[in-house]
Write a structure and sequence with these properties.
65% of the residues lie in helices and 0% in strands. By secondary structure, the chain is an all-alpha fold. Helix 1 runs antiparallel to helix 2.
Amino acid sequence: MKILLIVQAIVSILLVVVILMQNRGEGLGVIGGDFSGSYHTKRGFEKFLTRSTVVLAVLFMGIAIATVKIGS
């Protein structure tokens, strides 16, 4: 049980770091009308960050469900 909580804490920290590393360039500028309108495909490191976010989020949810199931 303790190992799951430790792994979940590590995964959550990694998830926050990966999310913060993603930079779209749009941000809140869209609200002020500063939208360039250009679209681009994800390449290289940006694609890695996106896939890492999905994997870490699924892993986090899986660990959270497992912790609840084991704890009850």
